[in-house]
């Protein structure tokens, strides 16, 4: 007779408990990101046996904590950067220190490690900047829950440097 503790886990399912009618876009985005991360087939490959249940629960907990921290970070930057969120994109405004350069940046919502320059749109509201430079800044950003804050700060630093170099050339 086979020990129940060493049996294979046959199936994993992730169910959404968020109402489809929810008006909270921030919660929807974070919830959808979490659902994208918790892929049952990948988890089943890694956590195959009943003895892997505790590590599986730790993994799920760490992903939930990551998602919650990202949500809190989004909430923090929401007012600072005229952040708007829909089901597919996060949009925000960034201005240089003297506000001679103002950008509207939009990025596709997906798993952070999959976001690249082609997932970003940049519109110059005021001033002139190479949009591809702003898009390329995403490459070196650490992909933790402060990912968006770091990207916004890098954009702000870059356009402030461009603003200062333009002022020096005049």
Number of domains: 2
Tertiary shape = elongated
Query: What is the helix/strand order?
Result: HHHEEEEHH
Rg measurement, Å: 21 Å
Give the tally of β-strands.
4
**Portion in strands:** 5-15%
Mean pLDDT: 90
Largest sheet geometry: 4 strands, antiparallel
Give the spatial strand order of the biggest sheet. Answer: 1-2-3-4
Q: Which percent bin holds the helix content?
A: 40-55%
Helix/strand/pairing category:
alpha+beta
Low-confidence stretches: none
Termini separation comes to 85 Å
Please work out how many helical segments DSSP would assign: 5
Oligomer: single chain
Topology:
Blueprint: H1 25-37, H2 40-46, H3 53-78, E1 84-85, E2 89-95, E3 102-108, E4 120-126, H4 131-136, H5 147-169
Antiparallel strand pairs: 1-2, 2-3, 3-4
Gist of the model:
The chain is α+β, with helices and mostly antiparallel strands. Helices cover 44% and strands 14% of the residues.
Structure notes:
- This protein is α+β, with helices and mostly antiparallel strands and 170 residues long.
- It folds into 2 domains: 20-77, no CATH class; 80-169, no CATH class.
- The chain contains 5 helices and 4 strands; from the N terminus they run H-H-H-E-E-E-E-H-H.
- The chain has helices at 25-37, 40-46, 53-78, 131-136, 147-169; strands at residues 84-85, 89-95, 102-108, 120-126.
- A 4-stranded antiparallel sheet has the order 1-2-3-4.
- Helix 1 runs antiparallel to helix 3.
- The longest helix has 26 residues, at 53-78.
- It is elongated.
- The termini are far apart.
């Amino acid at each position: 007779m086979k020990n129940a503790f060493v049996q294979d886990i046959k199936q994993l399912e992730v169910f959404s408990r968020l109402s489809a009618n929810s008006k909270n876009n921030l919660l929807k985005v974070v919830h959808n990101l979490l659902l994208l991360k918790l892929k049952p087939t990948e988890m089943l490959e890694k956590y195959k046996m009943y003895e892997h249940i505790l590590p599986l629960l730790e993994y799920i907990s760490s992903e939930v904590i990551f998602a919650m921290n990202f949500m809190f970070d989004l909430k923090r930057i929401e007012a600072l950067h005229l952040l708007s969120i829909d089901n597919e994109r996060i949009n925000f405004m960034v201005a240089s220190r003297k506000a001679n350069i103002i950008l509207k940046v939009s990025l596709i919502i997906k798993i952070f490690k999959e976001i690249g320059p082609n997932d970003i749109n940049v519109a110059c509201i005021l001033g002139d900047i190479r949009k591809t430079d702003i898009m390329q800044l995403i490459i070196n950003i650490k992909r933790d829950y402060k990912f968006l804050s770091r990207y916004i700060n890098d954009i702000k630093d870059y356009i402030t440097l461009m603003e200062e170099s333009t002022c020096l050339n005049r």
